[in-house]
Design brief:
By secondary structure, the chain is of the alpha/beta class. It has 2 domains: 36 residues, no CATH class; 177 residues, P-loop containing nucleotide triphosphate hydrolases (Rossmann fold, 3-Layer(aba) Sandwich), CATH 3.40.50.300. It contains 8 helices and 9 strands. The strands form 2 sheets. It has a 7-stranded parallel β-sheet, with helices on both faces. α3 packs across α8.
Length: 222
């Protein structure tokens, strides 16, 4: 069979793939991938969502990473390079061990940052969708969608970074008041309802002052 992370666009969008028959002719044939379970996520993956007000996403992110996922190997997906840089700096301010990947980082530095994550020097990778496909990162515990993607296929690729090769994994998506249609589209695509992940809002609010101050510090240097 033929595999590629940069497969020709027309072939990819037609949802076909080449297979070479195991016979004397070695004739190539096309397999229609839409007949398979390509839009399903694996059973080893636990998929959850968390209701978060748009204006307090950073607050909730810092809180849950400190209290529930501090030692987990985590990929956090965001929607833009600027936001990726901002969240990375905020995490460094709170002493998290962070690697960062987005398209505006030179390729050499991207590789260096990725190797620190793969080598477990850093346990958090903050990335845009450049990290959602083609990267083989073993034993990722958690994929966190800080920004839920607009395309359900991108969601599937993101959460596919965990629960690989039969290992267990978890995905958690932040859902704001503006994201309801997006999460419904995801659920329709994967034919599964996401489970709600709840935290105590009063406990989260205890971090409001320190996180707000941290945000102001990062905004001054960004």
């Amino acid at each position: 069979m033929f595999f590629s992370a940069t497969i020709n666009y027309s072939l990819h969008t037609d949802n076909f793939f080449l297979d070479f028959l195991n016979d004397n002719t070695k004739r190539p044939i096309l397999i229609d991938l839409t007949k398979n379970e390509q839009k399903k996520t694996v059973k080893e993956l636990t998929q959850k969502y968390m209701l978060v007000p748009e204006k307090t996403k950073e607050l909730y992110l810092i809180y849950i990473m400190k209290h529930f996922f501090k030692k987990k190997y985590t990929i956090i997906f965001v929607s833009s390079c600027r936001k990726c840089h901002f969240i990375s700096m905020l995490f460094e301010l709170f002493s998290f061990k962070v690697s960062t990947i987005h398209s505006k980082i030179p390729q050499k530095k991207r590789f260096e940052s990725l190797e620190k994550f793969k080598g477990r020097i850093n346990n958090i990778l903050i990335a845009t969708d450049v990290a959602s496909r083609g990267l083989d990162i073993p034993e990722v515990d958690l994929v966190l969608n800080y920004d839920i993607p607009r395309n359900p296929d991108d969601y599937i690729h993101r959460v596919g970074r965990t629960a690989r090769a039969g290992n267990l994994g978890m995905s958690l998506s932040f859902i704001t008041q503006f994201d309801i249609d997006l999460v419904l589209a995801v659920e329709n695509s994967i034919e599964k309802k996401l489970e709600e992940y709840k935290v105590n809002d009063d406990d989260v609010l205890k971090y409001l002052s320190i996180v707000s101050n941290g945000i102001k510090v990062v905004q001054m240097v960004c």
